[in-house]
Design goal:
homodimer, L-fuconate dehydratase activity (chains A, B), TIM Barrel, magnesium ion binding (chains A, B), 2 domains, Enolase-like, domain 1, 5-stranded parallel beta sheet, Enolase-like_C_sf (chains A, B), Mitochondrial enolase superfamily member 1 (chains A, B), 41% helix, metal-binding (chains A, B)
């Protein structure tokens, strides 16, 4: 199967009209239409690989255009050729002498790289007949390392250090794998408290979630302080003092403002404040981290951190206490591996960003690998979960008692239902007919 | 003229086959085809505005796609409406609740924002009948401040501090304007030593440049140390000990490697090492700056610094000794104003990036404004110059005795010759017919 030659890459603009019900609304993204640039690669052996990157509606067509530009690097290549030197292939896509100017490794072109390489990883896992997490867990340490581009991060993590981490991760690996298959990976929920939800809805959703076994809850904040106080008080009352509360400002504040605002919410004992300011502001996050440490509130960020160089600095500057990797913003599994290993070296827990469309499906593979092969710890670790749009996937996530149960189907859980893709294609799909603005 | 309503925005993919002669080649961009996404906005009054962003060939079509997505914010708006609250208009483009996900303020979408807003600034300057630098120099300080989005930078520069800088800049402003009109703004040349040029060509070009009055020279380095030593020695021999030499690695190295490599070139006394590592690596640049300070070598960077938040941190971390703004990567004049003012506060000289297509034409306006109204100093300051492709512009730069002479035509010098645009449109233009890969 590894001999398969990639003969075709197609990409679709697939959008869900989530803004109609304020699902996913936050302080900066008030009307998201959860969307994906959806990639299918076909091979001469008949095997297909599926990949995606997540977007919020408008602009998806730009990412689609970028995927089309990258397809020239993929079509005509053998899977074996790619994975025999995946680092070189990664760099081929990210460091083309002409294309890198419009990045490099950031924004649209990096999102497109993620979509394309997610499809390649899906293809690889399918070719090996394993779910992606298992492909990674079983992979030889040196082979794993050979997938990572260490350019620009060797001052924080050398290849040898990365290898040492993976070798150390061998200890107890089988037991952790068994544990995951039995118990699953702990999750927290963001589904209860989007910023557009009225209090009554929030109350009802939290109460139901508690009954379903959820113990960790995230609230969107940042538009109005008095609203935030009221909402946080309400949720803390419902979930009680021992359950976990996190707050998320989605980049709403300047540095000083972030410190003042979060201090006003300290009485509700949030574990972390997520995205207090610009995702690019490493030093700002460091200042906020330092100011909030005495209050016992950590800083979490990463869903809009665009590459390993930014994560490296967030770690070097002690600018975050929770690393939130994203399966669709970083350059696929390759770059996520680099971040997981750096986080391990700097002893900062990884708590992935998920939600949107497909992000839960994808990132569960990475965090399972992190626990089984890298961090070997569940302390202060959990993976975001949002209960949306899973029904459009062929192998949707399975949550049991607020835990992600390890996927069993071969691949990266990236395949969408054909019918869903057709109906939601923008602008020609049925769902978008007669929709305002389409 | 300010009442003009924008009725149409069109954008073209315009590429020059510069890779054929290795013009513009460096350690990371070995075969650039200098290109632009070229924007024309039309108004109901007949006045037009021209804008562009610079690219390296492949991927220009992606930026064009992003410009098209942004045009919805522009078409139907009055110029007066835009400039009466330019900060709000800037944020409309950069912070749309759906579109910001594919940035925010970085990569493709920020390049497209630059192209669109450069056209708006051109239109504004034309409506006022002034070259852009003069529009800025004559503008009321409060009006200037109202064009800047201070979000995420108030911990480094408040509106009041920015205002104070501009008010202080009033002293001696008229004399400096007269001085510029007479002498022009000092430039340095990068035309002599692209990495793809053989020694003989390099020697000849340097010798000619010296005759033409050039005293500051930049050499591309970073592929092979022995080559770099040979090339630097050669140039230093030709230009002598008192002229200025700068070296530019175009992001080739990791942090440790940068320090070692540049130390090996210290004997040639470069004023700065430009882009030693990843443009995203603020802390890396700080480490390199600290290591090279005892050798008297500064760090310069900025041409791929994607927004004001990144420049803020480079300044806060003392990570650079020369700020290299770019007229087409930052969000047009609006964001460049923020950077010029921050650089002034941190007392770091601005030495703009130029070259490519149109970058010299545009950035000369910004650096003239910087000298006349902000920094009031020429110490360690100069603007890059590359002698390429100026013939395609309606108001090309005028260099006299290695100085940029202030443009006199109304606008931002962004208008290209219609014939040039037609011939170089990709892929349908005459120049690209029968070209390999087209």
């Amino acid at each position: 199967m590894l001999k398969a030659k990639i003969t075709r890459l197609s990409v679709s603009d697939v959008r869900f009209p989530t803004s109609l019900e304020q699902h996913g609304s936050d302080a900066m993204h008030t009307d998201p239409d959860y969307s994906v640039a959806y990639v299918v690669i076909e091979t001469d052996g008949g095997l297909k690989g599926y990949g995606l990157t997540f977007t919020l509606g408008k602009g998806t067509e730009i990412v689609v255009c970028a995927v089309e530009a990258l397809s020239a690097f993929v079509v005509g290549t053998c899977l074996e050729e790619i994975v025999s030197d995946f680092r070189a292939f990664y760099r081929l896509l990210t460091s083309d002498g002409q294309m890198r100017w419009i990045g490099p490794e950031k924004g649209v072109i990096q999102l497109a790289t993620a979509a394309v390489l997610n499809a390649v990883w899906d293809l690889w896992a399918r070719a090996e007949g394993k779910p992606l997490w298992k492909l990674l867990v079983d992979m030889d340490a040196k082979k794993l390392i050979s997938c990572i581009d260490f350019r620009y991060i060797t001052d924080a993590l050398t290849e040898q250090e990365a290898l040492d981490i993976l070798l150390k991760g061998q200890e107890g690996k089988r037991q952790r794998e068994e544990q995951m298959l039995k118990e699953g990976y702990p999750a927290y929920t963001t589904s209860c408290a989007w910023i557009g939800y009225p209090d009554q809805q929030l109350k009802q959703l939290c109460t139901e979630a508690l009954k379903d076994g959820w113990t960790r809850f995230k609230v969107k904040v940042g538009v109005d302080l008095q609203d935030d106080i009221r909402r946080c008080r309400l949720i803390r009352q419902i979930i009680g003092p021992s359950n976990t509360l996190m707050i998320d400002a989605n980049q709403r504040w300047d540095v000083g403002e972030a410190v003042t605002w979060v201090t006003s919410l300290a009485e509700f004992q949030p574990l972390w404040i997520e995205e207090p300011t610009s995702p690019d502001d490493i030093l700002g996050h460091a200042t906020i981290s330092k100011a909030l440490a005495p209050l016992g509130i950590g800083v979490a960020t990463g869903e809009q951190c665009h590459n390993r160089v930014m994560f490296k600095q967030l770690l070097q500057a002690s600018a975050l206490q929770f690393v939130q990797i994203d399966s669709c913003r970083l350059g696929s599994v390759n770059e996520n591996l680099a971040v997981l290993l750096m986080a391990c070296k700097f002893q900062v827990p990884v708590c992935p960003h998920a939600g949107g469309v497909g992000l839960c499906e994808l990132v569960q593979h990475l965090i399972l690998f992190d626990y089984i092969s890298v961090s070997a710890s569940l302390h202060n670790r959990m993976c975001e979960y949002v209960d949306h749009l899973h029904e459009h996937f062929k192998s949707p996530v399975e949550i049991q008692n607020a835990h992600y149960m390890p996927p069993k189907d071969p691949g990266y859980s990236t395949e969408m239902l054909e019918e869903s893709v057709l109906q939601h294609q923008y602008p020609q799909g049925d769902v978008w007919q007669g929709h305002p603005g389409c």
